[in-house]
Amino acid sequence: MANSLWQNCQNVMQQDLPAQEFNTWIRPLQSLEEGGVVTLFAPNKFVRDWVLDKYADTINQHLTQINSGQLPSLRVEVGTKPTDSRVAQQAAPKLEIGNKLNSIPDIKPPAFSPAPAVHVPKANVQPRNEAGLQLKSNIRENYTFDNFVEGKSNQLARAAACQVADNPGVSYNPLFLYGGVGLGKTHLLHAVGNEILNRNPDAKVIYMHSERFVQDMVKALQNNAIESFKKHYRSVNALLIDDIQFFAKKERSQEEFFHTFNALLEGNQQIIMTSDRYPKEIEGVEDRLKSRFGWGLTIAIEPPELETRVAILMKKAQEAKVNLPHEVAFFIAKRLRSHVRELEGALNRVVAHANFTGKPITIEFVKEALRDLLALQEKLVTIDNIQRTVAEYYKIKVADILSKRRSRSVARPRQVAMALAKELTSHSLPEIGDAFGGRDHTTVLHACRKIKELREENLDIKEDYLNLIRTLSS
Ligand SMILES: Nc1ncnc2c1ncn2[C@@H]1O[C@H](COP(=O)(O)OP(=O)(O)OP(=O)(O)O)[C@@H](O)[C@H]1O
Predict the structure, then answer these.
(1) For the CA of 340, the nearest atom of ligand 1
(2) Which of 180, 197, 218, 366 is spaced 20 to 30 Å from 117 by Cα?
């Protein structure tokens, strides 16, 4: 069968958009094409409004082109594609492109049923019942929205988490946050937990690592207490479950989680999950579970950019009541790029050294305190390494990068490599020029400016650059 209009449109958009953007907004849309009308179903209001706001024009353009110049009538609705088209008539609320202000439904107030007061902050050992199940909430009080520093890389995840905390079980259910290690996923889970408990101290909120879920289940099976296990997890108001990729290849746990998941969703109780990768890419997890993960809202957290890394360091220093000069925070953030946990570790070391020696925290002091860490970083990201990685990425030879060739297929990767060398190493412009086949420092400067500009306006370059930074910093 020929591809539908929407499939074709998705294919084009997948080429045009960065993967994260496509996966978050376009991939979850289902379509129904009937009588010259294309109806797109968004999993929730947030996605629908976003799609209307940001992509309506593009979608219209693509559909018109694919449909031989004729613009099909396009609708975007909240819901899932009905199996029977008659049901589609009843699916409310509807919103037509170009009529954005009509019939946006109100978000309902939180749907929590009363549960016993269970919030016990800062408890290290969690009380457990006879089946070994955790009885109390275990939300870490020090992970809040207030001390979560916002930047481009985590803005959307934070906004969605805030909305969920405001309207648990209603706004986006489940909320799925994914991204690399140490980028703040766990922090956001607890921040939601704290906010829900602030608003309703009686709420039964459970944070748990997926491994714990598996362990508890195994124990329950051994102790013949599986019924109590089921009841326990199905009675919570919000289940915050971390690192879901640990369910891979654990079929029985997946089965149990599948039922828990369904029960909570049916009861309008909130589920938030995190994983180190996009749900559909978690291998060894059943498809029915993966597809459910995407029913609500799926959002990526990216590694923080320089400004955010500086802000995080300043915030953490302030929390620790340490005087960290801005230029020192900048010095550390510029060199440690991979994730926030690494930044925190470095700051803790600097503070410990400062306390120990009684010296003020200066750049010189930090160079000494973090000597081995910085040396490792320098060793990891060399110009040579950058040139090899960029050549491999663009499928050209390192010799091409160093050559005088000016064709676009070589010149652009060369400029990208120069910009990366400037950003990721502490070499000067003349040194970088030298390392790129003896070029002048003004050529390097021009390359840096050009790439900065292109990253603003060209999605491919933006994506390439981010991918390369990720590869080089991991
Ligand atoms: N934007 C941020 N603002 C303030 N602190 C942050 C931010 N992002 C991360 N952190 C801090 O970095 C540390 C690591 O974050 P967290 O444990 O939430 O990462 P994670 O994404 O869950 O990683 P993992 O997958 O390894 O569990 C935490 O101490 C957290 O408070």
Answers:
(1) 12
(2) 218
Nearest CA, atom 24, ligand 1: 181
Q: How far is CA 435 from the centre of its chain?
A: 36
Assign domain 155-300 to its CATH architecture. 3-Layer(aba) Sandwich (3.40)
185 appears as a binding residue in the annotation: yes
Report pLDDT digits (tens) over 352-372. 999 889 999 999 999 999 998
Q: Which of ligand 1's atoms lies nearest the C-alpha of 184?
A: 18
Please give the distance, rounded to the nearest whole angstrom, from the Cα atom of residue 467 to the centre of ligand 1. 21
Q: Please determine, for residue 378, whether its predicted confidence score (pLDDT) is greater than 90.
A: no
Distance from residue 117's CA to the centre of ligand 1 (Å)? 28
In CATH, what number does 381-473 get? Answer: 1.10.1750.10
Domain at 306-376: CATH code? 1.10.8.60
- Residues of the chain with pLDDT > 90, as a percent, come to 49
CATH for the stretch 5-96: 3.30.300.180
Residue nearest to atom 1 of ligand 1 (CA): 149
Ligand 1 binding pocket mutation candidate from 186, 189, 190, 246 (most atoms within 8 A of CB): 186
Is residue 180 annotated as involved in ligand binding? no
| pLDDT tens digits for range 300-335 | 898 898 899 999 999 999 998 999 999 999 999 988
| Domain ranges within the chain, ordered by starting residue | 5-96, 155-300, 306-376, 381-473
Residue 153's pLDDT band (cuts 50, 70, 90): confident
pLDDT band at 466 (very low <50, low <70, confident <90, very high): confident
Find the residues whose C-beta lies inside 6 A of ligand 1.
143, 147-149, 154, 181-187, 243, 276, 312, 340-341, 344
Using the mean position of ligand 1's atoms as its centre, give its distance from the Cα of residue 344 in Å: 9
pLDDT tens readout for residues 229-262: 889 888 999 999 999 999 999 998 999 899 999 9
Averaged over 155-165, what is the pLDDT?
94
